[in-house]
Amino acid sequence: MSVTIKDVAHKANVSIATVSRVLNHKSNVSEDAVEAVNQAIKELGYSPNFLGRDLRKSETRRILAIIASTEQSFYSEVIRGMEETAMSKGYDVLIATTRDDPNHEMHLLGMLFSHSVDGAVLLGPKLDAKTISELAANHNLAMCLERLDGCKALTVTINNVQAGKDAVNYLINKGRRRIGLITTTQRAQSSVDRELGYRQALEENGIPYDPSLVYYGTYGADSGTRGCRELMSLEKKPDAIFAISDMLAIGAMNHALAAGIKIGKEVLFFGFDDIQYSHIFIPHLSTVRQPCFMQGKLVIEKLIDNMRAETPDTSTYMLPHSLILRETTGD
Amino acid sequence: MSVTIKDVAHKANVSIATVSRVLNHKSNVSEDAVEAVNQAIKELGYSPNFLGRDLRKSETRRILAIIASTEQSFYSEVIRGMEETAMSKGYDVLIATTRDDPNHEMHLLGMLFSHSVDGAVLLGPKLDAKTISELAANHNLAMCLERLDGCKALTVTINNVQAGKDAVNYLINKGRRRIGLITTTQRAQSSVDRELGYRQALEENGIPYDPSLVYYGTYGADSGTRGCRELMSLEKKPDAIFAISDMLAIGAMNHALAAGIKIGKEVLFFGFDDIQYSHIFIPHLSTVRQPCFMQGKLVIEKLIDNMRAETPDTSTYMLPHSLILRETTGD
DNA sequence: ATATGCCCTGAAATTGTTTTCAGGCACAGG
DNA sequence: CCTGTGCCTGAAAACAATTTCAGGGCATAT
User: Fold this and answer.
1) What is the pLDDT of residue A248?
2) Residue nearest to nucleotide C16 (CA to C1')
3) Angle (deg, nearest 10), helices A16-23 and A5-12
4) Is-above-0.90 flag for pTM?
5) Which listed site, A207, B61, B87, B227, has its alpha carbon 20 to 30 Å from B166?
6) Which one of B49, B57, B70 makes the best mutation probe of the A interface by having the most chain A beta carbons within 10 Å?
7) Which helix (H) or strand (E) holds A96?
């Protein structure tokens, strides 16, 4: 069918071993041979079958990034960080999506077990901590962006508790006391942590926690809109709203704009993620920025380290976040 | 190192051939053997090495989708269409990004040449038509979303000329005569086609083409903002603006909103792509919707057909688009 | 009793590459 | 002239699976 190393060897009048040496740029091969082989390769239009190579070498130099869907443009910087770092070490990054299905996530991890890739990174896993811990013990598996409580696997993330706390503290320092929270019923650990930060900030400032100020929805913008409408129809309206994602915050502001609420004065808004639209949408949204590129970079570095290590590093690395202050907090 | 089929065979007291038969659910194997093998597999925690299997079978059942970056959330529906269709036929879809670098695009195509995947789909290629035509002649390669003039390769897209024309015709039918165009200097074929549609619509309606009404920028929202500002500072202002992407349109409307222009009355806006934000942003944007899911579905179906065919199908399939009419055209 | 057919099994070939090992050759030093 | 050294080379093993082929065992038919 396809042209193989054997055909090249035959055409160049050398052994397949010599062709292989040329392909891999080994030093111990004569110039004549190199010339002849390269000539044959060109004429035949040969390109090596990596299945053979990978099998023999037991490595593919490929890493799989498993994400929920390509919808969240938010992942894109993380992926870039992963790719650039991987490439500099001679690896390629492939992406696959789970569509929020834990079974499909497991199916994709099959690529790791079956040696189709050398390592895998989960960005927002759907599987539980126990399962992942077990898998990570025997395979080159890491997590990024999301940590999992009690999960013994290499993790790179930010401190979402502290980040939520910082955002809410900022609102409190602006003199706000009735702070609404818009979050999701879907309990990703990061959502849980951000909510925890919200509560800690209130507590440390002696503000009583009021459950009616917390709206649980989905993660679409329209859910943010509904959340804002609900919070604003309370007898005692909030004077600030913290949303656990920019998407929710933007949805929320849509209601506020429609209702004629003065954003940044009457009610302050704080988002999370610093997505592209947070500074396209008017008014510009104050938000928490994570070091996306750096998280991608670090997780790949550590993952590749682990591939060569005898005992894998299963630490959790938390990178620093920062507050981006814009119009919605009156800045 | 790892546990292989040999270990399983030994543990189950059968030959590796029998283990292989069990793994592949062949009928001609006794129940006792099946039992013993499955038991051994479980005890050893064995999972087959696909490199061996793929090499022997000369197929990986994997398809590579090559995109520019995961930033354009716009791709996500296409990918979903690809994945769902592929999965139903027993294939997995992997994604890789070129970061707009034609060299890297070629590097990624190496996965196709080296038999690491069974087929590849380019979504918005950076390579030229000639190169792609040659590659497609010898490998299982297709294009989706973007066509390339004179490229002899399986392509699934929409008719961007007609779509641009439809959008502009709609504006004309609303009584508009001075229609601005916001586009990009980066000449993707789809941009060229949409601009062509714009000109054809004008021509067919006897409206002279006015170059000062065309703004060439990048594809960021801020470029749309600049474009709108420039067009609105003309002596003879436009009464409608067609942007070749929603992103540009949203950027443009940001200027209009800030300048107090009555969107949907004074100036109509028409976008392209129907991205998520086009109905989050207020006012809601009228836009052209492409059948993303269907394009993804069709390209995979045709690509898989091509894998089994003796002579590959190199046709271009154009799927129907539709106009989504919202507030920005006064609907 | 022998032949026929079916079910199940394992040895060995096969897939395309890398790597090991042994040896051929030339050249320098004794 | 002989030996050691270094460079280059090819045959064959290895990687982990699938598939082919031949045959053993058993039941049924003749």
Assistant:
1) 96
2) A52
3) 110
4) yes
5) B227
6) B70
7) strand A92-97
Distance A27 CA to C25 C1' (A): 19
The predicted structure's pLDDT at residue B1: 62
Q: In 10 A of CB B102, how many CB atoms? A: 13
Q: What's the pLDDT score for residue B223?
A: 96
Is A114's CB within 8 Å of B49's CB? yes
Query: Could you report the per-residue pLDDT of B54-89, keeping only the tens digit for each?
Result: 999 999 999 999 998 877 777 899 999 999 999 999
Q: How far is B144 from chain A (nearest CA, A)?
A: 17
Mark A98-136 as b/e (b = at least 16 C-beta within 10 Å).
bbeeeebbeebbebbbbbbbbbbbbbbbbbebebbbebb
Q: How far is the CA of B28 from the C1' of D30 (A)?
A: 28
Cβ contact, residue pair A80, B93, below 8 Å: no
Please spell the DSSP secondary structure of B84-123, one letter per residue.
HHHHHTT-EEEEEE-TT-HHHHHHHHHHHHTTSSSEEEEE
Nucleotide nearest to A56 (CA to C1'): D15
Chain B: residue nearest A99 by CA?
B80
CATH 3.40.50.2300 in chain B is located at 59-158+292-320, 160-289
The reply to whether B218 touches chain A by the CB within 8 Å rule is: no
Contact residues, A window 78-107, toward B, CB-based 8 Å cutoff: 79-80, 83, 92-97, 99
Q: Give the rounded percent of residues in chain A with a pLDDT score beyond 90.
A: 92
Q: How much is the pLDDT for A69?
A: 84
The Cα A91–Cα A82 span in angstroms is 10
Burial (CB < 10 A; 0-12, 13-18, 19+), residue A260, is exposed
The answer to whether B76 CB sits below 7 Å from nucleic acid chain D is no
**Whether A131 contacts chain B with CB within 8 A:** no
**A60-158+292-319 belongs to CATH 3.40.50.300:** no
Instruction: Summarize pLDDT for A205-245 with one digit per residue, the tens.
Output: 999 999 999 999 998 999 999 999 999 999 999 999 999 99
The residues with which B50 forms a beta bridge, in sequence order, are none
User: What residues in B contact A55, CB-CB < 8 Å?
Assistant: 49, 51-52, 55
CA distance A196 to chain B (A): 29
Query: A5-48 falls under which CATH superfamily?
Result: lambda repressor-like DNA-binding domains (1.10.260.40)
For the domain B59-158+292-320, what is the CATH code?
3.40.50.2300
What topology is assigned to B160-289 in CATH? Answer: Rossmann fold (3.40.50)
Q: What integer is the mean pLDDT of A71-95?
A: 93
CA-based R_g, chain A, Å: 26
Distance A48 CA to C26 C1' (A): 34
CA dist., res. A290 & res. A245, Å (int): 12
How much is the pLDDT for B187?
82
- CATH 1.10.260.40 intervals, chain A: 5-48
Strand C bases, protein C-beta under 7 A: 7-12, 14-20
Please give the residue of chain A at the shortest CA–CA distance from B114: A49
Give B56 CA → D18 C1' in Å.
6
**DSSP tag of B239:** S
